[in-house]
Amino acid sequence: MNRTAAEVSNAAVDQVWSAVEGNARTILIDSPPGAGKSTLVREICLRYIRFGQIPVIVQTNDQADDMVRGFINSVDPRVRDLTIGRLHSSKYVTPQDIVNHQQVVCSKSVVDLSDCEIIVAPAAKWAFVSRQFQWPFAIIDEAYQMRSDQLLSIGALMNRLLLVGDPGQISPFSSADTAQFRGRPLSPVESAAITILTTRPDTLRIPLPVSWRLPSSAASVISDAFYRVPFTSGTGPDDRHMEIDLSVCEVSMPVRLASQKGWAFIELDDLLMPTNDEEAVKAIALVVDDLLSAGITFHDERGKRRMRPSDIAIGVAHRDQRDYVRSAIAGVLSARGLPANAIAIDTANVLQGREFEVVIVWHPLSGRRDASSFHLDAGRLCVLLSRHRHACIVVSRGGIREQLQQFPSTEPVWLGEVPPLMDGWHAHLSILAHLETHRASRERLC
Questions:
Q1: Distance between CA 329 and CA 338 in Å, rounded?
Q2: 196, 322, 348, 392: most buried by Cβ count inside 10 Å?
Q3: Residue range 276-296, pLDDT digits in tens
């Protein structure tokens, strides 16, 4: 008997809990985009609190605040009598909706949070907690975003760890010169998840099998290109669709194709261009204008509603690209009486972890002469292509296939370094093969 996606997902959560109850020293949960990492973390916390207080380590203050909001906004009756601790630095100003909530205690000292069942804070704050405090069990969220040196700072505080993260996301960032660490055993700039797998090969590794964000049109594409363990979509091919207002006289081919197939690929002329490619910016702006003009209604498992500007996001590789696109989109929005920030426009690093209905992606390799490690990074492309619930529209210069085939990487090879989980060349070629079957005429975009 075939199980539903919900049954498969719930079985994975129960498997994780069995591992926690079984006293496994380290457990690593590999999660695809939109598989419910934060929901899993909250569920394990709610099951564990009968054994004692549990620390939750996240990577940023925004993630910490979102985690706390996830608890206090939950309708789960198990949350009603809990007190959540929000540990923060002396310089951080916690949002008012958290500070004023009766179930939250905010403090810069862990001593003040002794009566809290759950304590949430970024890894950078946990590093300053005195070693006199010890917890038998803790959870690290976004473990693939966490650097190994941050894990070293907090490892002595916790006897057992549950690490949750997405192996397809962008690797940890460091502003330091990493050349002195590359290829060395247990590099401090490696991710915490990889370091745990290296130092504790007996780590129990459990994949989450269902993405609740990605539609059926995208789950297999993203899974095949970026993940070693396949996953499926929590929705079927008929569960979501974008309805275009029939009274709209003309709907551009990219928008029409995206509404029907979930993907559209706008391929501009094969030219080498600077990062601020004006034609690419214009194409993106016109796609946004077309989306806002099409009178789109979303139909999915959440119900039926008209599209809002906030449902759209634009992902780019560089901050200067972001600024050029923001300027162009501000004009489109202003003509409609909308604020300039009505649509999210940012780099993959910033959009990581966020979710939208429709995403427009400026391909990282568009118009480039080379394929540097930054632009070839599989994690960056994965983030850009996995933020959507309904459709993804990709804008790029032609010639990417030839670029990948003719220009080998010039990045140095570091002996002893752990190879990336997914090869950027394979990922880009796999995605390109898919996009080439969804080319959309750009007559109205020129």
A1: 10
A2: 392
A3: 999 999 999 999 999 999 999
Residue 186 banded pLDDT, cuts 50, 70, 90: confident
Report how far apart the first and last C-alpha atoms of the chain are (Å, whole number).
Answer: 52
* Contacts with 362 (C-beta within 8 Å, 6 or more apart), sequence order: 280, 284, 314, 315, 316, 317, 321, 325, 395, 396
- Rounded CA-CA distance 332/329 in Å is 5
Tokens encoding 23: 């006293």
Longest dimension (CA), the chain: 70
Rounded Cα distance, 312 and 291, in Å: 9
Residues 247-271, buried b or exposed e (16+ Cβ, 10 A)? eeeebbbbbbbbbeebbbbbbbeee
Contacts of 376 (CB under 8 A, 6+ apart): 364, 365, 409, 424, 425, 428
Cβ-based neighbours of 267, under 8 Å, separated by 6 or more = 396, 397, 398, 439, 442
Inter-residue contact 352 to 170 (CB < 8 Å): yes
